[in-house]
């Protein structure tokens, strides 16, 4: 092969390599531009506003892990529109403890109103126990495991020391728990009769 043909072949090879590299570079630039466009599009899409769940929970029921769950309540549409534009920390500041608790995941924000005492279901249960000073028999709200945490329904004039040790143990173990007010009144009457005998 003569020198002119070799030069021509070398130049052709060089042009081929250069055009291949240039094509690769152009395709790579187009690919990066497409990725940037997709990223910009994804960033510009408006995220869906969170769903707000409003509920109420009774503190004594929660504390003693009673079998009731928070009850859903109606939220305010206007409030939700304002809250949707706030960060979670700002919402928690607006709905602060101890009156409220705020939890969230990616899709929903739960605002729980914390109410004192027992829920209506557990407020209908009564049990016998001691009053705060331990001197008298008291009728307390709620199942026996809440003790006096549910509040006092009735403070009797029946002295604790006048109740037999056996009955005291039954009271302290929750044997005197009532789901009907009538049953509680009947049991209380029998304790009153015993107390009358000791006076």
Q: What is the helix fraction of residues, given as a range? A: 40-55%
Outline: rod-shaped
Residue windows where pLDDT falls under 50 for at least 5 positions: none
Biggest sheet, spatial arrangement of strands: 2-1-4-3
On the 0-100 scale, what is the average pLDDT? 84
Strand content: 15-25%
Order of helices and strands: HEHEHHEEHEEEHEH
Distance N terminus to C terminus?
Answer: 137 Å
The total count of strands amounts to 8
Kindly report the oligomeric state of this protein: single chain
Secondary structure: elements and pairs:
Elements: H1 3-44, E1 51-58, H2 59-63, E2 71-72, H3 77-83, H4 88-94, E3 100-104, E4 108-115, H5 120-123, E5 126-130, E6 136-141, E7 152-159, H6 165-172, E8 177-178, H7 181-198
Structure report:
The structure is a single chain. This protein has 199 residues and is of the alpha+beta class. The chain folds into 3 domains: 45 residues; 65 residues, no CATH class; 75 residues, no CATH class. The chain is built from 7 helices and 8 strands, in the order H-E-H-E-H-H-E-E-H-E-E-E-H-E-H. Strand 5 and strand 6 form a beta hairpin. The termini are far apart. The model has no long low-confidence stretch (mean pLDDT 84).
């Amino acid at each position: 092969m003569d020198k002119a043909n070799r030069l021509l072949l070398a130049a052709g090879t060089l042009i081929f390599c250069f055009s291949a590299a240039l094509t690769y570079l152009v395709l790579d630039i187009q690919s990066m531009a497409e990725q940037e466009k997709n990223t910009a599009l994804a960033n510009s899409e408006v995220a869906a506003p969170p769903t707000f769940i409003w509920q109420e929970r009774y503190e004594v029921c929660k504390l003693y892990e009673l079998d009731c769950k928070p009850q859903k309540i109606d939220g305010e549409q206007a409030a939700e529109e304002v809250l949707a534009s706030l960060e979670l920390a700002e919402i928690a500041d607006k709905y602060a403890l101890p009156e409220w608790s705020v939890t969230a995941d990616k899709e929903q924000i739960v605002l729980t109103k914390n109410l004192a005492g027992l829920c209506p279901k557990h407020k209908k249960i009564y049990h016998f126990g001691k009053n705060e000073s331990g001197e008298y028999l008291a009728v307390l709200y709620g199942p026996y495991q809440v003790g006096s945490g549910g509040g006092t329904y009735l403070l009797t004039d029946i002295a604790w020391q006048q109740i037999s040790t056996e009955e005291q143990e039954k009271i302290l173990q929750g044997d005197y728990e009532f789901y009907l007010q009538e049953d509680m009144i009947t049991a209380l009457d029998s304790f009153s009769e015993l107390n009358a005998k000791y006076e």
